[in-house]
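Supplementary Methods S3. Input chains for the assembly prediction are listed below.
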Amino acid sequence: MAHRWGMAIDLDRCTGCEACVVACHAENNISTVGEDQAALSRAKHWIRVERYYEGEFPNVRVKFMPVLCQQCDAAPCEAVCPTYASYHTSEGLNGQVYNRCIGTRYCANACPYVVRYFNFFNPVWDKPLQLQLNPDVSVREVGVMEKCTFCLQRIKAREVQAAAEKRELKDGEVQPACVQSCPTRAMVFGDLGDPESEVSRLASSARSTELLSELGTRPKVNYLSQDSWHGGENV
Amino acid sequence: MERRDFLKISAMAGATAALEGCGNPDHQLIRFVPEEDLIPGIATWKPSICTLCPAGCGLLVRVMAGEAEVVRNGQLGLLKMGLAKKLEGNPAHPVNQGKLCPRGQAGLQVTYHPDRVKGPLVRNGQRGSGRFREISWEDAIKQLVSELSLLQASNSEGGLAFLTAPMRGQRKTIIDTFTASFKRSASVEFAFFDDSVTRTANAASFGRGLPPTVDLAQSNYVISFGADFLGTWNSPVAQSLGFGHMRKGRPGQRGKFVQFEPRLSQSGASADEWIPVEPGAEGMLALSLAHVIIAEKLRLAAAAGHAGSLIEGWSLGLPDYAPEKIAEQVGVKPETIARIAREAAAHAPAVALIGDAATAHTNGLFNALAVNALNALLGSVGQRGGIRFGPTPSAKQPAPSFPSWASEVSSGAAAVSILLLYNANPVFAAPAEWGVRRALDKIPFIASFGSFIDETSALADLILPDHSPLESWLDDTPVSGSTKSVVSVAPPAMNPLHNTRATPDVLLDVAHQLGGDCSKALPWKTYDEAIRASFALLYKEKGSKTAKDAEEFWNKAQERGGWWSAEESDVAPGAGSSAGGVVKSAAPRFSGDSSHYPYHFLPFASQLFYDGSLSHLPWMQETPDPLSTVMWGSWVEINPRTAEKLAIQQGDLVEVASPQAKLRAPALVTPGICPDVIAMPVGQGHENFTRYATGRGSNPISILSAANVEGTGSFAWAATRVKVSAVGRGKLILFGGSLREASAELKHR
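Predicted structure tokens for the full assembly:
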């Protein structure tokens, strides 16, 4: 049976450390754009850590929220793509076929999560920084939209491995780079179609919410809201 | 088209392509014989060690075949070789258990940095002119040997100094042994964020001169006094793991985390309660918490033992620290102090931490001793859920403090003829008053082993570049982060890209060429031989259960990334020392009077650049800072009320002036800072540190006054006052992405 990949992010664990952001850059060959382009909001971070202040000094509290492609079941980005570059994969992911993309940027306009990043120019790595590139992930050229893939290359590698060994994938066997690196274990990845999986268990928690779910996008990333202290007991 | 025609045309096209290829010099490169055992597309994972901060996390390096342009025997060519592609935490390593921080992830770019020193260089122009010319390793080593043997032979006053970043393991042993074999020599360590105040305080309170291993995973109540333990302090990945577990790893139980600090840190941002406190008042606050606990008989004063007896007035119940008496000085409401004290006492195990700016005031040692006494009162020392101490013995003799060494050299009180420099950059990271530049100017010969030209190694006469950590043998003995005994070791994860040599190997080579005492003291031919010898000793002591002989023990350690005990082996706190006498309350002193310089100036460790040694990595520059979201630059944090008073808007260029010097950077108006405090991240403002960091932003260290933490040789870097004024429009690059449709309560600012 096809998997239904999803993620749970426990905001009570997340400390906003940015380890996921750098892990994603390293894994997915995301190019840095430099100071001037970054000033034009052209920096690419498939996952970013949003930070919200609540209250005024001295009663300040902060919320961190890692935001990546929510891999929506009803994805606004897919419907608007004239070339079917944005499409729904058999495992429910919002795929992006780079060599179909003609750069209309409709998908980025349609995405309420602002997680699609456009290549305004060809990526450059000052030699020999290109040696860091991951050979499992293609490099995107000018005029192409790119976005989080849930580390599709890691999913595929594990699926192929499991098939070769004639077994089912184990829960937790596939870990996207962000999940792998997370120092507080705030992120959990797995099969939402398997009710026994860790990610399904977390997604059914009373704290579980979806980002902008009122838009009807049916995202597959579940956020477990920040908790507070109840005298030592968990509610 | 016929198949045959198609083949003909393709063949012609191929020939044309090949001819065109001749025009492109990249395609003319000769191909060296590839490394063996490489299967394209198949990754192998090799253990390594992260060397970017003192935590010493274990790594796994993903190595895959790739083609690199390399120079071999003077010939440029293409080599198919194993290349590091990704760094992850080593799941078997007890410190970081498979996890890694953003800085550790970016360690990959150290190896592939375009501005690495690619071979030995000799100065070719005035010192500091930045002009170098390439020389061969043979000539470079010959020059170093001749300088050192002249020094050995001469009877002049001048000696040898070896200045390094804090180091451990056999690398440290080789450096210290090498240095000690010279008369009039000194092995000096320098780091901006050093932990010597913590070590001194822990030695006095608990007889353990080490940074603590914080058992957050089992704690129910965490009070941190300024320690950014989830960001950069001590062993941040180990502490983040523990924190996640404390919050949500124990069904039915969730610990509380309270952070006291004048400026909201990366860690404070995750606190259940963030409570601003006046800079330098942390110790007073800790004793006020202790007062409440003792006065309300939640714990007996005697429970704190020796750590308590070091504090004046402890046995009387600290009457001078009653919350209502000190509330104004500390800036925290008396009822808040009393409530936190009661909560902590009622929710054992509770633990208190102190670090960063709280230990970098002139009264930093008092603050640390006060928090130690509070910890002892809470019963958290050496206990589960508390602070624990690893088995590393405390240093017998503390290394000479860098500030006193620098001032002796610059004043001429100590003469140094040769300085060897390794991964320390005091020209960037020391206040001007220490006279580091003057001291270096007085030293006739400076050789650097650095991989990059930075502000300090630019002054070298000779540069003998080290391999990058991924290209080197590594060994390490982390002192905190795990309650197990840990000795990390790793063979090189990949072959060197450039014409570099491992510094410990160069030192052994030089020692043997020098002969005499120096050679006798260092019996090993290579660094890995020295590591292996240390593992043979370790096998005798500890290894018999896990391996049948020393050989197997050594091989297993290389495969796993080190040796660690199966059981927890932390050491119970000892007697402590009363050498310092009873500690009286000490108020912080500041440079600059408050009428002219109304604001406290707090530099802080950058989550991405740490102490500035990582500002050269493009991934770190382009990752938004977690709290400010600033990329590629510096900023100055100002409270909204202060900004309004000074008519400063977000993004305005402000001038921050101390009694020493001034700097300019854009303003960031943020609610997470006391109105009388101005804060700035350390890391930017390099004058000379590769294409990505040079000339970018401003360096807060450049305006600090030199002051010591009383009772230690440590730098009190939080003891400067400043004034602030708007001078124009600045350039503040904030990360643009945020939710357009975010609801009102999720206001992004």
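The radius of gyration of chain A is 18 Å. Residues 152-164 of chain A form the longest helix (13 residues).
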